[in-house]
User: Fold this.
Amino acid sequence: MIQKILTPLDGSNNANIALDVAADIAAKYGAHLKILHVGLRQPGPLKELYEAAEQSFEQAERSGRWTSDYPDWPRHLQVLDHMGRMILDGGQARAKDRGAASVETVIDWGGEGERILHHSKHPAVDMIVMGSRGASPVQGLFLGSISHKVFHLAPCTCVTVHAAEGQSGLGELKRILVPFDGSDHAMKAVELACDMAEKFDAGLKFVLVLEGGESPEHLLSAVDMDTLDAETRQALDEAKAPGSLPMGAVLAVPMISKTVLKKVGEAVLAHAKKTAAHKGIAMAETELLDGDPVHCILETVEQDRADLIVMGMRGLGEVEGMLVGSVSYKVNHLAPCTCITVR
Assistant:
């Protein structure tokens, strides 16, 4: 259940669109929405907004109103603080206009990624929603340094909003795509996707990608053997027998024919569809694909014109998570639509 949502807001167009998505989810779930602005040290690309804030600040000064909690700060930082509060006031009104009933605004100072992660834990939130790129001039290798850090280190589900021209939140959500492999983290994605499909009245499709004719161990462990025919069960037993592996290949993955692997994949997808039916989604689609997982998933997104991808993410450690180019990270980076990565 989604009860608390955090979204960073920096005044950029991408962040505003991400706020729309966060507000739409908050409205559907009756969740509390926390809008965070991490104060900028320089206006960067937000020069017009900074100039408007400077004029507002000067008017407040002339009228004798107290405008800053930091009177000893350099003037440009006081203006940036004032700008941050203007951004938050506008964001709160925008979120409420989209139906979010419980909205909180917070301004903080420090490293953006660090402060976002701090506010995701104190108090704990269920979901972070943010744009793939914001107003910061510093960009990382893929998503941008801030999104990159939050994506890997956040303790909760992350929503990466890829802003598109004319996009407005999730109001037009029609099709949800769920890459599925039967693992525990993928099952969490199925549960959230089913819930969102019901709340947004959207179509749902599960896809499983078979890689190179070899069955990953987690795929085999996800299958209820009783659902397979006798011939397939025998082939799996033979593939896992010690004699089927090369000498010394103690940790090798058993070789399985594509015919058998296809039946295993179909059983895994049937499990996803059955789970969806139990949650009230009677018309979920499934598709079994073969090839590079990232390419297959993205190609399906384009062909089906999916509006949202919901996928699981294995719990990698801090160092490994920052360095390993996982399927979920690559899809999250390259997808043309909003992506939800479930933890």
Observations:
- The two ends are 13 Å apart (CA to CA).
- The chain has twelve helices and ten strands.
- Residues 176 and 308 are 5 Å apart (CA to CA).
- Confidence is low (pLDDT under 50) at residues 137-143, 212-216, 247-253, 315-324.
